[in-house]
Amino acid sequence: MKMITTYLTQNEGKIFVEGIDTETDSLSVRKKIGYLPETNPLYLDMNVVDYLNYAAELDGVPKSNVKSAVENVIDKCGLQDMKHKNIGQLSKGYKQRVGLAQAMINEPDVLILDEPTSGLDPNQIVEIRKLIRDLGKQKTLILSTHILQEVQATCDRVLIINNGEIVADGTPESLQAQFQGQVVIDLIVKKDQSTNREKILQEIRSLKGVEQARFDMEDSLSWKFHITGKKGHDLREDLFKKIVSHNLIILGLHQEETSLEDIFRKLTQN
Amino acid sequence: MNNILTIGKKELKSNFLSPVAYIVIVVFLIITGWFFTSNLFLAGVVSMRTVFEIIPFIFLFYVPAISMRTFSEEKKSGTIELLLTRPVTDGNIVLGKFFATLMLAVFTLLPTLIYVFSLTSLGTLDVGPIFTSYLGLILLAGLYISIGIFCSSLTENQVIAFIISFLIVFALFMMDKVLIYLPVGLASILEFISTGSHFSALARGVIDSRDIIYFVSGITLFLLLTKFSVESRKWS
Questions:
Q1: What ipTM is given for this predicted complex?
Q2: Disulfide-capable partner of A233 in A33, A209, B112, B200 (CB 3.0 to 4.6 Å)?
Q3: Tell me, what CATH number does A241's domain have?
Q4: What is the pLDDT of residues A114-131, one digit of tens each?
């Protein structure tokens, strides 16, 4: 990321941003890029408006547009109430917004955000993610993060990099499909004294695609079954029909999905 | 050019947002004020000589102090990364910071003009040497600042930046004071390198192009070194 932003240069290979070489024409690349580093460095003794003015002028926003550009990002990032405060007095969430605001002040084509939600509280995370999703509709957004729910929530394309090599590339959905292992289902059925529990279990086992089924636990109200199916089979429909055919009531049917966390662990742990 | 101005304005402003600038300016004025008044009232001489003699000495501490934060602070807080990824050349950044610090030094010298005006009411004053002395002081400050900025770009620790730049500046200042102990060949080289001989010519009222060139090339050299030091992040 630091190489894309031209802060560092690569030892080998070339990087092109919108067709411009980062090494030979780094100034033009920098004009097209907005960058929010992981540590979100800010001048703590400046106030928000002054800092954004400074960022706009250095980013080459024409003098006559600086004011409107600053107002624009202040609106977008919800900084209206804080704009005359010193950055050092702001909470972490607001600082992060100032960081985002300075990154998008020159309306860059490419926004590079390094862990934009680290260290924020849940409310702030939701707000920043919403902001990121809105931005992503118009611009190319490169996001690095260790929080994989965030990827699931915001990204269209995922690259997993392990020791400098790309080990996975695709949409979150395609990655999940690709790495889908066994299907695991928890089924909760309302207890019915007139039905034989073991018989139902037998019938579940005989369903196509079921690898294993066992009785999990029983409480005063329900039976819980634990079913594992073969890869790529969706058992939920057959299970539903089977239970209903016995005139039993389903209280819960939950299929566990392979999360990006599982995929990440699988890819990076050997 | 615009970028130099933008950076310069921001740097200068941030100097005055913190109390540091006010404190160092006040200390500077107290010390020079003491030498001015003691010379005037105790020795009874209508002259700026002692003031101009003491200022280069005060600059040894003062200039490293005002230039030590220029790059160190940004390196420490990480803001340097954002600054260097904006569409601004490294050279513009160095120049912006240099001129901002030079302006701060000029601001500190401005109140000493009061001494000059109060002396004109007491007797006739030779204006020429005073003018060239101020020119010399500004050039001297420029050289010290370029050294200070260079040292600041080497480290993220402001104290280390201060100490290294003080040592370099002190060496340049002391060189022509120890000439008598040295062999003739070496002495003439050191005399040329030292700031003292070039400044004292200007303080006497002589504008020699060689002295001007000495200061300007010294400033250029250290600013170039600073630029390389900023770029050195890319060398691996």
A1: 0.85
A2: A209
A3: 3.30.70.1340
A4: 888 877 778 878 888 888
